[in-house]
Amino acid sequence: MDADSQKYYAVRAGAKPGVYLTWAECQEQTAGYRGASYKSFLSREDAEAYVAGKKTSAAAPGEERFYAVAVGRKPGVYTDWDTASLAIKGWKGPKYKRFDTREGAIEYIRTHGNEAAQEALLKDEGVEPTSKKRKKTTGGDAGKVEDEKDIQHVYTDGSSLANGRAGAAAGVGVFFGPGDKRNISERLQGEIQTNQRAELTAILRALETVPIDQEIRIFSDSKYSISCATEWYVNWQKNGWKTKDGPVKNKDLVEAIRAKIDERTEAGTKTYFQWVKGHAADAGNVAADQLAVNGARQLI
After folding, report:
1. The model's pTM
2. Which of 107, 157, 186, 231 is catalytic?
3. Which fold has domain 1-56?
4. 100 counts as catalytic
5. 77, 146, 170, 207: which sits with the fewest CB atoms below 10 Å from its CB?
6. What are the pLDDT digits (tens) for 137-148?
Protein backbone atom coordinates (compact mmCIF):
# COMPACT_ATOMS: atom_id res chain seq x y z
CA MET A 1 0.00 0.00 0.00
CA ASP A 2 1.26 3.47 -0.83
CA ALA A 3 2.57 5.08 2.35
CA ASP A 4 1.46 8.46 1.02
CA SER A 5 -2.20 7.41 0.61
CA GLN A 6 -4.62 9.88 2.15
CA LYS A 7 -5.96 8.83 5.52
CA TYR A 8 -9.23 10.01 6.99
CA TYR A 9 -9.39 10.43 10.75
CA ALA A 10 -12.86 9.75 12.10
CA VAL A 11 -13.77 11.15 15.52
CA ARG A 12 -16.92 9.50 16.84
CA ALA A 13 -16.61 10.91 20.36
CA GLY A 14 -14.56 14.04 20.95
CA ALA A 15 -14.76 17.81 21.31
CA LYS A 16 -16.21 18.00 17.80
CA PRO A 17 -17.08 14.68 16.11
CA GLY A 18 -16.39 14.47 12.40
CA VAL A 19 -13.89 13.45 9.73
CA TYR A 20 -10.46 15.11 9.63
CA LEU A 21 -7.66 14.94 7.08
CA THR A 22 -4.68 15.18 9.43
CA TRP A 23 -3.63 13.47 12.63
CA ALA A 24 -2.99 16.86 14.22
CA GLU A 25 -6.63 17.87 13.67
CA CYS A 26 -7.78 14.56 15.12
CA GLN A 27 -5.60 15.02 18.19
CA GLU A 28 -6.98 18.50 18.69
CA GLN A 29 -10.48 17.04 19.01
CA THR A 30 -9.58 14.05 21.19
CA ALA A 31 -6.64 15.00 23.40
CA GLY A 32 -7.83 15.29 26.99
CA TYR A 33 -11.39 14.33 26.03
CA ARG A 34 -12.58 11.58 28.35
CA GLY A 35 -14.08 8.67 26.46
CA ALA A 36 -12.70 9.81 23.10
CA SER A 37 -13.33 7.35 20.28
CA TYR A 38 -11.54 7.67 16.95
CA LYS A 39 -9.97 5.66 14.12
CA SER A 40 -8.20 6.26 10.82
CA PHE A 41 -9.55 4.97 7.51
CA LEU A 42 -8.43 4.84 3.90
CA SER A 43 -11.75 6.10 2.54
CA ARG A 44 -14.00 8.99 3.51
CA GLU A 45 -17.05 6.73 3.22
CA ASP A 46 -15.76 4.38 5.92
CA ALA A 47 -14.74 7.29 8.12
CA GLU A 48 -18.18 8.90 7.86
CA ALA A 49 -19.83 5.54 8.57
CA TYR A 50 -17.73 5.14 11.71
CA VAL A 51 -18.70 8.60 12.96
CA ALA A 52 -22.35 7.72 12.36
CA GLY A 53 -21.96 4.47 14.30
CA LYS A 54 -22.42 2.26 11.25
CA LYS A 55 -20.46 -0.80 10.14
CA THR A 56 -17.24 -0.15 8.23
CA SER A 57 -14.64 -2.11 6.35
CA ALA A 58 -11.13 -2.55 7.72
CA ALA A 59 -9.57 0.53 9.26
CA ALA A 60 -6.15 1.84 8.35
CA PRO A 61 -3.05 0.45 10.10
CA GLY A 62 -2.15 2.12 13.37
CA GLU A 63 -5.73 2.79 14.49
CA GLU A 64 -6.48 3.12 18.17
CA ARG A 65 -6.98 0.00 20.24
CA PHE A 66 -8.72 -0.39 23.59
CA TYR A 67 -7.29 -2.60 26.32
CA ALA A 68 -9.82 -3.88 28.85
CA VAL A 69 -8.45 -4.85 32.25
CA ALA A 70 -11.25 -6.71 34.03
CA VAL A 71 -9.12 -8.08 36.87
CA GLY A 72 -5.84 -6.45 37.81
CA ARG A 73 -4.05 -3.85 39.89
CA LYS A 74 -6.22 -1.09 38.44
CA PRO A 75 -9.18 -2.29 36.33
CA GLY A 76 -10.41 -0.10 33.51
CA VAL A 77 -10.17 0.69 29.80
CA TYR A 78 -6.82 1.84 28.43
CA THR A 79 -5.84 3.11 24.99
CA ASP A 80 -2.18 2.09 25.07
CA TRP A 81 -0.56 -1.19 26.02
CA ASP A 82 2.23 0.36 28.08
CA THR A 83 -0.27 1.78 30.56
CA ALA A 84 -2.51 -1.29 30.46
CA SER A 85 0.44 -3.59 31.17
CA LEU A 86 1.21 -1.64 34.35
CA ALA A 87 -2.38 -2.26 35.49
CA ILE A 88 -1.81 -6.04 35.46
CA LYS A 89 1.91 -6.26 36.22
CA GLY A 90 2.55 -8.57 39.16
CA TRP A 91 -1.15 -9.37 39.57
CA LYS A 92 -2.02 -13.03 40.08
CA GLY A 93 -4.65 -14.25 37.62
CA PRO A 94 -5.30 -11.03 35.67
CA LYS A 95 -8.05 -10.87 33.04
CA TYR A 96 -7.51 -8.55 30.10
CA LYS A 97 -8.17 -8.34 26.37
CA ARG A 98 -7.68 -5.99 23.43
CA PHE A 99 -10.63 -4.57 21.48
CA ASP A 100 -11.18 -2.38 18.45
CA THR A 101 -13.90 -0.35 20.18
CA ARG A 102 -14.39 1.14 23.63
CA GLU A 103 -17.84 -0.41 23.75
CA GLY A 104 -16.39 -3.90 23.36
CA ALA A 105 -13.85 -3.26 26.09
CA ILE A 106 -16.50 -1.97 28.49
CA GLU A 107 -18.74 -4.96 27.85
CA TYR A 108 -15.83 -7.33 28.51
CA ILE A 109 -15.22 -5.70 31.90
CA ARG A 110 -18.92 -5.84 32.77
CA THR A 111 -18.96 -9.54 31.97
CA HIS A 112 -15.63 -10.63 33.46
CA GLY A 113 -14.72 -7.88 35.92
CA ASN A 114 -14.47 -8.21 39.68
CA GLU A 115 -16.15 -5.82 42.12
CA ALA A 116 -13.40 -3.21 41.77
CA ALA A 117 -13.82 -3.24 37.99
CA GLN A 118 -17.60 -2.90 38.20
CA GLU A 119 -17.30 0.08 40.54
CA ALA A 120 -14.75 1.71 38.24
CA LEU A 121 -17.24 1.49 35.38
CA LEU A 122 -20.01 2.90 37.56
CA LYS A 123 -17.87 5.92 38.37
CA ASP A 124 -17.21 6.45 34.66
CA GLU A 125 -20.98 6.37 34.09
CA GLY A 126 -21.38 9.02 36.78
CA VAL A 127 -23.50 6.89 39.11
CA GLU A 128 -23.04 5.62 42.64
CA PRO A 129 -21.58 2.09 42.97
CA THR A 130 -24.05 -0.54 44.17
CA SER A 131 -21.78 -1.42 47.10
CA LYS A 132 -22.61 1.99 48.57
CA LYS A 133 -25.95 3.07 49.99
CA ARG A 134 -28.68 2.42 47.44
CA LYS A 135 -30.72 5.41 46.36
CA LYS A 136 -34.48 5.16 46.47
CA THR A 137 -36.03 4.53 43.06
CA THR A 138 -39.56 4.83 41.76
CA GLY A 139 -40.38 1.15 41.35
CA GLY A 140 -38.20 -1.81 40.52
CA ASP A 141 -36.70 -3.15 43.74
CA ALA A 142 -33.46 -5.11 43.81
CA GLY A 143 -34.08 -6.46 47.32
CA LYS A 144 -35.93 -9.39 48.88
CA VAL A 145 -39.33 -9.66 50.54
CA GLU A 146 -40.49 -12.02 53.26
CA ASP A 147 -43.47 -13.70 51.57
CA GLU A 148 -42.86 -15.11 48.07
CA LYS A 149 -45.93 -17.32 47.66
CA ASP A 150 -47.89 -14.77 45.61
CA ILE A 151 -44.94 -13.58 43.54
CA GLN A 152 -44.27 -14.95 40.06
CA HIS A 153 -40.66 -16.08 39.74
CA VAL A 154 -39.07 -15.87 36.30
CA TYR A 155 -35.49 -16.27 35.10
CA THR A 156 -34.15 -14.21 32.22
CA ASP A 157 -30.92 -14.41 30.25
CA GLY A 158 -29.33 -13.25 27.03
CA SER A 159 -26.68 -14.82 24.85
CA SER A 160 -24.61 -13.49 21.97
CA LEU A 161 -22.56 -15.92 19.92
CA ALA A 162 -19.34 -14.17 18.80
CA ASN A 163 -20.33 -11.21 20.98
CA GLY A 164 -18.66 -7.95 19.99
CA ARG A 165 -17.53 -9.25 16.60
CA ALA A 166 -18.89 -9.04 13.08
CA GLY A 167 -21.56 -11.65 12.46
CA ALA A 168 -22.60 -11.91 16.11
CA ALA A 169 -25.97 -13.58 16.73
CA ALA A 170 -27.88 -12.95 19.97
CA GLY A 171 -30.76 -14.76 21.61
CA VAL A 172 -33.29 -14.14 24.38
CA GLY A 173 -34.28 -16.62 27.07
CA VAL A 174 -37.15 -16.37 29.59
CA PHE A 175 -37.79 -19.35 31.87
CA PHE A 176 -40.93 -19.77 33.98
CA GLY A 177 -40.57 -23.48 34.66
CA PRO A 178 -40.12 -26.89 33.02
CA GLY A 179 -42.59 -27.29 30.16
CA ASP A 180 -44.22 -23.91 30.86
CA LYS A 181 -45.89 -22.57 27.71
CA ARG A 182 -44.77 -19.07 28.65
CA ASN A 183 -41.08 -19.95 28.28
CA ILE A 184 -39.41 -17.86 25.58
CA SER A 185 -36.51 -18.76 23.30
CA GLU A 186 -36.12 -16.35 20.41
CA ARG A 187 -33.60 -14.49 18.29
CA LEU A 188 -32.84 -10.91 19.28
CA GLN A 189 -34.37 -8.47 16.81
CA GLY A 190 -32.42 -5.59 15.27
CA GLU A 191 -28.98 -5.04 13.79
CA ILE A 192 -27.13 -4.72 17.11
CA GLN A 193 -26.65 -8.28 18.35
CA THR A 194 -24.93 -7.78 21.71
CA ASN A 195 -25.21 -9.68 24.95
CA GLN A 196 -26.34 -6.56 26.79
CA ARG A 197 -29.27 -5.96 24.45
CA ALA A 198 -30.25 -9.62 24.71
CA GLU A 199 -30.19 -9.46 28.53
CA LEU A 200 -32.32 -6.32 28.60
CA THR A 201 -34.74 -7.67 26.01
CA ALA A 202 -35.24 -10.83 28.07
CA ILE A 203 -36.28 -8.71 31.05
CA LEU A 204 -38.63 -6.70 28.86
CA ARG A 205 -40.21 -9.87 27.45
CA ALA A 206 -40.77 -11.18 30.97
CA LEU A 207 -42.53 -7.95 31.96
CA GLU A 208 -44.64 -8.13 28.80
CA THR A 209 -45.66 -11.73 29.53
CA VAL A 210 -46.67 -11.50 33.20
CA PRO A 211 -50.07 -9.81 33.82
CA ILE A 212 -49.87 -6.28 35.17
CA ASP A 213 -51.66 -7.25 38.40
CA GLN A 214 -49.23 -10.10 39.15
CA GLU A 215 -46.20 -9.31 41.30
CA ILE A 216 -42.99 -10.59 39.75
CA ARG A 217 -39.45 -11.38 40.80
CA ILE A 218 -37.00 -11.42 37.90
CA PHE A 219 -33.81 -13.41 38.40
CA SER A 220 -30.92 -12.33 36.19
CA ASP A 221 -27.16 -12.87 36.15
CA SER A 222 -26.66 -9.45 34.55
CA LYS A 223 -25.75 -6.80 37.11
CA TYR A 224 -25.67 -4.36 34.23
CA SER A 225 -29.32 -4.99 33.31
CA ILE A 226 -30.55 -4.91 36.90
CA SER A 227 -28.68 -1.67 37.56
CA CYS A 228 -30.12 -0.12 34.39
CA ALA A 229 -33.66 -0.97 35.48
CA THR A 230 -33.41 -0.05 39.16
CA GLU A 231 -30.71 2.60 39.62
CA TRP A 232 -28.76 4.03 36.73
CA TYR A 233 -31.79 5.26 34.80
CA VAL A 234 -32.42 7.92 37.48
CA ASN A 235 -29.20 9.84 36.77
CA TRP A 236 -29.43 9.12 33.06
CA GLN A 237 -32.84 10.78 32.90
CA LYS A 238 -31.56 13.79 34.84
CA ASN A 239 -28.59 14.11 32.47
CA GLY A 240 -30.64 13.85 29.29
CA TRP A 241 -29.61 10.23 28.72
CA LYS A 242 -25.96 11.15 28.35
CA THR A 243 -22.83 9.97 30.15
CA LYS A 244 -19.27 11.22 30.15
CA ASP A 245 -18.61 8.86 27.23
CA GLY A 246 -21.60 9.98 25.16
CA PRO A 247 -25.23 8.85 24.72
CA VAL A 248 -26.46 6.05 26.98
CA LYS A 249 -26.23 2.68 25.27
CA ASN A 250 -29.45 0.69 24.86
CA LYS A 251 -31.58 3.66 25.88
CA ASP A 252 -34.58 2.33 23.95
CA LEU A 253 -34.67 -0.90 25.93
CA VAL A 254 -34.07 0.75 29.30
CA GLU A 255 -36.92 3.19 28.66
CA ALA A 256 -39.22 0.36 27.57
CA ILE A 257 -38.42 -1.62 30.73
CA ARG A 258 -38.97 1.41 32.94
CA ALA A 259 -42.30 2.11 31.22
CA LYS A 260 -43.48 -1.42 32.05
CA ILE A 261 -42.29 -1.15 35.65
CA ASP A 262 -43.97 2.24 36.06
CA GLU A 263 -47.23 0.84 34.67
CA ARG A 264 -47.10 -1.94 37.23
CA THR A 265 -46.26 0.48 40.02
CA GLU A 266 -49.23 2.70 39.12
CA ALA A 267 -51.43 -0.41 39.25
CA GLY A 268 -50.16 -1.14 42.76
CA THR A 269 -48.08 -4.12 41.62
CA LYS A 270 -44.49 -4.58 42.76
CA THR A 271 -41.59 -5.64 40.56
CA TYR A 272 -38.53 -7.22 42.14
CA PHE A 273 -35.10 -8.05 40.74
CA GLN A 274 -32.58 -10.51 42.11
CA TRP A 275 -29.07 -11.17 40.86
CA VAL A 276 -27.88 -14.77 40.53
CA LYS A 277 -24.44 -16.02 39.63
CA GLY A 278 -24.32 -17.07 36.01
CA HIS A 279 -23.28 -20.51 34.79
CA ALA A 280 -23.41 -21.90 38.32
CA ALA A 281 -25.74 -24.31 40.11
CA ASP A 282 -28.98 -22.32 39.82
CA ALA A 283 -31.29 -24.51 37.73
CA GLY A 284 -33.50 -21.60 36.66
CA ASN A 285 -30.55 -19.58 35.40
CA VAL A 286 -29.10 -22.57 33.57
CA ALA A 287 -32.46 -23.16 31.86
CA ALA A 288 -32.81 -19.49 30.86
CA ASP A 289 -29.27 -19.53 29.49
CA GLN A 290 -30.02 -22.57 27.33
CA LEU A 291 -33.17 -20.91 26.00
CA ALA A 292 -31.11 -17.83 25.11
CA VAL A 293 -28.41 -19.88 23.37
CA ASN A 294 -31.05 -21.76 21.38
CA GLY A 295 -32.61 -18.44 20.44
CA ALA A 296 -29.27 -17.10 19.19
CA ARG A 297 -29.04 -20.06 16.82
CA GLN A 298 -32.38 -19.28 15.20
CA LEU A 299 -32.55 -17.50 11.87
CA ILE A 300 -34.10 -14.04 11.77
Report:
1. 0.57
2. 157
3. Ribonuclease HI; Chain A (3.40.970)
4. no
5. 146
6. 345 555 544 456
